[in-house]
Write a structure and sequence with these properties.
This protein is mainly α. The chain is 69% helix and 1% strand. One of its GO terms (biological process) is SCF complex assembly.
């Protein structure tokens, strides 16, 4: 006998003891053993344990019985299948027992077993077998009308099974439905309610035929119109089923709605409550199908939110007009309560229904402000606390819908009409809440603060005129002895938002009232209250002494500073006021990051706080932080050191800074460009104010900076930081590094021997980076630059120069020429034009870039020359147009203005060029030139749309794309008025014009969605039209013995689907998601490229609109299944296998996203597909690898469509 078996035998022997304590301890020990993963029972032990536990269920001691039930859970996965079936059989039999205690404990046992049954494919056979045994007996038990307690237990267990394991009961769904429907007419209310719960779990996963059968039954029972005792039950069932059944109720709504509306008129409060609960479910689950009924529902809700026949609100208002907070002790809500008054349930359900309308129908926002907003504000006086809370929540939903969708509005934008309507109602809202803020009810006050916080966030400054009315309520909630912790936190949160969004002057009169309770909150023992109070204190400090205008304020801050400082310092450290606190906190691993940030703020303060006593040790500690493997700490430390170096340069000695300089080389690397940028910015500051600290940078820091310059990843902020560093370095001559030394170090790698260049070829990006560095040095040292310019000219002239040398020389001449006038180099034009004939494409591109940039620095001489060449040199046109593009992009509007007409005329001569590449460059030039003088040039582009040439129209539309940039521009207002005319090209007969129109539309949706939001209703049909496969655009091409299919419409469809993806992020609220999904569904069956896009879109939709995706799941699953199960034909080329593999992985990512939707397992189609994936080794392997990738990266797959 094994050790485990011996131990189990001993326990089983003790369980037969006559002493209940022995039995209890033995059963408890057995439970502990069964919970161990390592335990393995032999067949004999299994049999004995199961028999003993079933016997203990009938033990005389209740505690032993309960422990025996708890043992059944872990036992399910430790014994063989037939032993579980034995347990289930015994428990089901016991449920029919005459003994009530045995029935109850057996019911608990069955629930415990059901909770532990495996839902994964590995244990599915056991689950199916057990569920079938239980279900058959439960159906019989439910039919036992003579024993209600058996019925109730059976219904409970059935609900548990249906909610967790419904997929295994598909064969029983019909018989379960047949057994549940009669229970809706049971004389016992508890039976009816539990039958409704079981039905709600059944409809979540039953097939459409059964769902229709249930709906037809409910409609048949409700149709006669007579109110019987069962009518409430049927309406309650309808509401519950609608919540769980979701979209499937939609096809029955036309029959249901008139019935429910009719029952709202019946004088029965409970019936009305069920009616509004049904309406709420319909609105949330079937928003599209409910559109035509929304106005009716709003009218009914508005009628019944004031339905309170037993109470006179006007009398209360007259009575309370002069009441103070102190007098509230006599009046309380309980005074008006009436056990028989159920009208509050009607009001609550009607308000919740209104909230559902508000939160799902943003398109009706203006109408809701016209009809619903005032009604909700009028009901803030509601006497029932539960109803009042729902009213606040409904109004908060209205405020959330009013928030601007695309960040803060830009200057010049028209105010949202809904916001205008809200502002008109603010005085009424504050007046209504003013009284509520004095209420004893904590729940009501919390609701008020939640609403006010949301209101303050909708439009900053909206509460500015009402601060005097709000302050007493805030102070009361912070000082009242009966106030809960959550109440204080909510009051402080609102005060923080209020302080952030108002001008300091508005609060100065109230500081004396606000500050004492806030200071008390700082000292509160509960850390969350302290944290909120410190945030408020932070804003109060900004109000006491605003940095924007510290001298102009006449407000005397002296009475308040001492209290604030003392309270804050006490929290920082219970010690005397001392700068040493910073050193202590810097040494503490938990507080060091926050301390570094605080030190940065203090160092940068215009108050010039003296930190010299802590600098020697502080700088050394900060230097050590640069070694830590914590990115946030490194970045904050670099920022702090930069500010320290800038503001305390006279106190920083070279030995003190040595520890910092020694850490910098390791931070300058292409592995983290942002850290590199911050490190180089610190170097620049040190070079400016204390160059003596940098005597050794030539050997340790500078090589790392030069490596970064030659990195292909260098761009943006990091490059800008390097340019400034080099400029400061050559001016200060720190470490004796001058212009020539730096120039040699930068360009040296490009002048090496041919052999070394071939070993380590330089990336093309590094040529441009080095050229910018050379230009930055040359503008700083113009006297030394002339020799360098001559040298570069000689390099590009010499036939002996290598290709890399000539490319670098051209780029350097271009960058230098942008900043300096190279008019003295007379032969430069000829040299560049000759380079246009080079056999090397890279040299031609560099020469084109050089010409454009040299022209920027000398427009007067070079622009006429360039325009003349464009007009006369057909072969060099493309390169010359690229040069012109550089000129337009880099020159100021003022310098270009005199030449606009000449350039414009020249460009339009080439906008009908047959070569698409040339037309694209022309379009970019036109778009960027339009930004120079939009009021004059945009109408000309619009006029050109009527051109008869498709090439011309496509060029104009592409030009508009280049006028749409992500930063605000003067053209935006003009563009908003006329972009609709350009979008009409989506209907152009020419395929290419429609494609570029879609690209332009995508650019607008991505960069400036406000331009196109108002036009979507008219534009979307044409966008969706372009997603269709057109057979007339598909042709066969013969390639030798093979025939190849070419789809000329593919690029247009890709552009259309890319637009759709962009709209998901920028204009989701303007889309009819169900119409959108129709086209996504078609895309799932399209070409490889389209399917890849739609898989990503489907994953995105799973998080953005899960309920809509759930409604379409049956139709979406099949294309996914088809992709995942398709196999490439044997003998296909390698690329076909790779494409199919990528498709499957992308489809699996979409499946993973779908499976993250709540309640997705209740979809039969999705459950079947998930089971198929688990049971197929290949698909299961792909799925698991994708889940692993997602968990490690934490990044959702996205698509760049900009």
């Amino acid at each position: 006998m094994t050790h485990v078996s011996y131990h189990i035998s001993n326990l089983l022997e003790k369980m037969t003891s006559t002493d209940k304590d022995f039995r209890f301890m033995a059963t408890n020990d057995l439970m502990m053993e069964l919970q161990k993963d390592s335990i393995k029972l032999d067949e004999d032990s299994e049999k004995k344990v199961v028999a003993m536990l079933l016997k203990l269920l009938e033990d005389k001691n209740g505690e032993v019985q309960n422990l025996a039930v708890k043992c059944l859970g872990p036992l399910v996965n430790k014994v063989k299948e037939y032993q579980v079936e034995t347990m289930v059989d015994t428990l089901c039999s016991n449920m029919m027992s005459e003994k009530e205690q045995l029935r109850d404990i057996s019911s608990m046992g069955l629930k415990t077993i059901i909770a532990e049954l495996p839902s994964s494919s590995s244990g599915l056979n056991l689950t199916v077998s057990v569920c079938k045994k239980i279900t058959a007996q439960l159906i019989g038990a439910i039919g036992k009308q003579d024993d209600v307690s058996v019925q109730l237990e059976a219904l409970d267990i059935l609900s548990d099974m249906l909610s967790r394991l419904s997929g295994t009961l598909l064969s029983f769904h019909a018989s379960i439905l047949d057994s549940l429907l009669p229970q809706l007419t049971s004389p016992r209310l508890a039976v009816r309610k539990r039958a409704i719960i079981a039905l709600s779990h059944l409809v979540a996963c039953c097939n459409s035929a059964l769902f229709s059968q249930l709906m037809e039954h409910l409609l048949a029972e409700l149709s006669p119109g007579k109110v019987t005792s069962a009518t409430r039950t049927y309406l309650q069932c309808l509401a519950t089923v609608s919540r769980q059944g979701g979209h499937r109720i939609g096809e029955h709504l036309e029959k249901i709605i008139p019935l429910v509306v009719k029952y709202c008129g019946v004088e029965d409060d409970e019936l009305r409550e069920h009616c509004f609960q049904a309406f709420e479910a319909f609105v949330r689950r079937c928003p599209k199908e409910m559109s035509c009924h929304i106005s009716t529902i709003i009218k009914l809700c508005l009628k019944y939110i004031t339905y309170d026949p037993n109470y006179n609100y006007d009398a209360e208002e007259d009575e309370d007009e002069s009441m103070d907070i102190e007098d509230d002790d006599q009046g309380s809500d309980e005074e008006y309560s009436d056990d028989d008054d159920m009208s509050w349930k009607v009001r609550r359900s009607s308000v919740k229904c209104l909230e559902a309308v508000v939160s799902t129908r943003r398109d009706l926002l203006l109408e809701l402000y016209g009809s619903v907003a005032a009604a909700l504000v009028g009901r803030f006086k509601e006497r029932e606390e539960n109803v009042r809370t729902e009213i606040f929540l409904a109004f908060i939903s209205l405020l959330r819908q009013t928030r601007p969708l695309q960040g803060s509005p830009q200057p010049g934008d028209k105010e949202d009409p809904a916001l205008t309507l809200l502002k008109k109602q603010v005085p009424t809202i504050v007046k209504a809440l003013h009284r509520q803020l004095k209420e004893k009810s904590i729940k009501s006050r919390q609701g008020c603060f939640s609403l006010l916080t949301e209101l303050a966030g909708v439009a900053p400054g909206i509460l500015g005129d009402h601060i005097p009315a709000l302050i007493p309520g805030i102070v009361y909630s912070l000082t009242d002895k009966s106030t809960s912790s959550n109440m204080k936190i909510d009051a402080l949160s609102f005060l923080y938002v209020l302080l952030c969004n108002q001008s300091p002057d508005a609060f100065h009169p109230h500081i004396s009232v606000i500050l004492p309770p806030v200071v008390l909150c700082i000292e509160d023992p509960f850390y969350k209250i302290t944290s909120e109070a410190l945030l408020v204190t932070q804003q109060i400090v900004k109000i006491l002494r605003p940095l924007e205008k510290p001298q102009s304020s006449t407000f005397d801050t002296r009475p308040y500073v001492k209290d604030l400082f003392a309270a804050t310092l006490k929290r920082l450290k219970a010690a005397d006021i001392d700068q040493e606190i910073f050193l202590e906190r810097l040494k503490n691993e938990i507080t060091r990051l926050t301390t570094v940030k605080a030190l940065t703020l203090i160092t940068a303060s215009p108050l010039k706080i003296d930190l010299r006593p802590v600098l020697p040790e502080g700088v050394q500690i900060l230097g050590s932080f640069l070694r830590k493997n914590q990115r946030a700490l490194k970045l904050s430390t670099l920022t702090a050191l930069t500010v320290l170096v800038t503001n305390y340069s006279d106190s920083l000695k070279p030995p003190m800074m040595e520890s910092v300089v020694n850490e910098l080389p390791a931070l300058i690397s292409e592995n983290d460009m942002h850290v590199s940028q911050m490190a180089i910015t610190l170097l620049t500051s040190m070079t400016k104010v204390c160059p003596s600290s940098l005597t050794k940078i030539g050997s340790n820091v500078l090589p790392e900076v030069l490596n970064l310059v030659h990195s292909p990843l260098l761009q943006g902020g990091a490059l800008g930081a390097i340019l400034e560093f080099f400029q400061v370095l050559v001016v200060t001559k720190a470490s004796n590094i001058g212009y020539n030394e730096l120039l040699k170090a930068l360009t040296g790698p490009f002048y090496g021997s041919e052999k070394s260049r071939n070993t380590m070829p330089m990336h093309r990006q590094s040529y441009y980076s080095v050229a910018k560095c050379v230009a930055a040095l040359s503008t700083t040292c113009p006297n030394e630059a002339s020799a360098m310019i001559n040298n570069f000219v000689q390099e590009v002239k010499s036939p002996k120069s290598s290709e890399s040398t000539r490319i670098l020389s051209f780029l350097c001449l271009g960058e230098v020429g942008r900043c300096m006038n190279l008019g003295g180099q007379k032969e430069l034009k000829t040299i560049i034009l000759e380079a246009f004939s080079s056999p090397h494409e890279e040299i031609k591109t560099a020469a084109s870039y050089a010409l454009g940039n040299i022209c920027v620095g000398n427009l007067k001489e070079y622009l006429p020359f360039m325009l003349k060449e464009i007009g006369s040199q057909q072969k060099r046109q493309y390169l010359l147009l690229h040069s012109l593009k550089e000129v337009i992009s880099a020159s100021s509007a003022e310098s270009l203005m005199p030449h606009v007409e000449e350039i414009w005329a020249l460009l339009f001569k080439h906008c009908e060029c047959a070569e698409e590449g040339t037309r694209n460059v022309v379009a970019e030039c036109l778009g960027k030139l339009t930004l120079v003088n939009p009021s004059q040039l945009l109408p000309r582009l619009k006029k050109q749309l009527s051109s008869g040439s498709p090439h011309s129209r496509s060029t104009v539309v592409t030009a508009i794309k280049f006028t749409i940039v992500d930063q605000p521009q003067p053209i935006d207002a003009l563009l908003k008025d006329c972009i609709g005319d350009f979008l009409k090209t989506l209907q152009d007969p020419d395929l290419n014009v429609r494609r570029v129109a879609l690209v332009m539309f995508n650019s607008a949706a991505h960069n400036k969605p406000a331009l196109i939001r108002g036009l979507l209703s008219s534009v979307l049909p044409f966008l969706y039209n372009e997603t269709q496969i057109r057979k007339e655009l598909i042709r066969e091409v013969e390639m030798g013995p093979f025939k190849h299919t070419v789809d000329d419409g593919l690029d247009v469809r890709k552009a259309a689907f890319e637009c759709m993806y962009t709209l998901l992020d920028s204009c989701l609220d303007c889309l009819d998601i169900f119409e959108f999904l129709n086209h996504v569904e078609e895309g799932l069956k399209d070409h490889y490229d389209i399917r890849m896009l739609t898989f990503i879109m489907l994953a995105r939709l799973s998080s953005l609109s899960p309920s809509a995706v759930m409604q379409r799941l049956d139709r979406l699953v099949e294309p996914l299944r088809a992709t995942c199960t398709t196999k490439v034909k044997a003998g296909s080329v390698k690329q076909e296998f790779e494409k199919q593999e990528e498709l499957r992985r992308s489809a699996m990512r979409a499946v993973a996203a779908l499976l993250s939707i709540r309640d997705i397992e209740k979809s039969t189609a999705m459950a079947d597909f998930a089971s198929q994936i688990r049971s197929n080794a290949e698909m299961s392997s792909i799925f698991e690898s994708i889940q692993k990738d997602d968990s490690t990266s934490g990044i959702t797959e996205t698509m760049d469509t900009s």
